[in-house]
Design brief:
7 helices, 141 residues, 55% helix, mainly alpha, two-stranded parallel sheet
Length: 141
């Protein structure tokens, strides 16, 4: 079994409460849990597909809110750090956090940090499921 790491990362970024992604070891492809191509499958074929497929980490496991908290811990400037911590509380925290990052011109730092976390999650998932990683930039440690 093998997979391109970038495809795993991309799927993780689009995972939400309604959409989950799976890896089919037979075809070595990732698919969404709610795509229309399942209409042609019988109930038995559908059951078989999901039984043999491996679910990618869910939104609960990914926990982007924790990623934001961890990012704030990396900030050295106390004023920026305090503003970011304040942005994390209450409804609309994700939007406020991104706006605060933009206001302090550290939005690219946030995106780089987040992308690194998604890659870590993807690599750990591949290792846990004994899936070989294909990537131009990934080297097994």
């Amino acid at each position: 079994m093998k997979i391109e790491l970038d495809k795993v990362v991309e799927a993780l970024k689009f995972t939400n409460n309604e959409i989950k992604y799976y890896y089919n070891p037979d075809t070595e492809e990732i698919f969404m849990s709610n795509i229309g191509e399942f209409e042609n499958l019988t109930e038995d074929e559908l059951d078989e597909l999901f039984e043999k497929s491996i679910i990618l980490p869910t939104r609960y496991y990914i926990n982007e809110y924790k990623m934001m908290q961890d990012f704030v811990k990396t900030i050295k400037d106390n004023e920026i750090k305090n503003q970011l911590y304040n942005s994390l509380y209450g409804k609309g925290a994700f939007r406020r956090f991104k706006d605060t990052c933009s206001n302090f011109n550290i939005i690219n730092d946030w995106y780089n940090f987040r992308n690194g976390r998604y890659k870590e999650i993807a690599i750990n998932w591949c290792k846990k499921n004994n899936i070989e990683i294909e990537s131009r930039w990934y080297i097994e440690k």
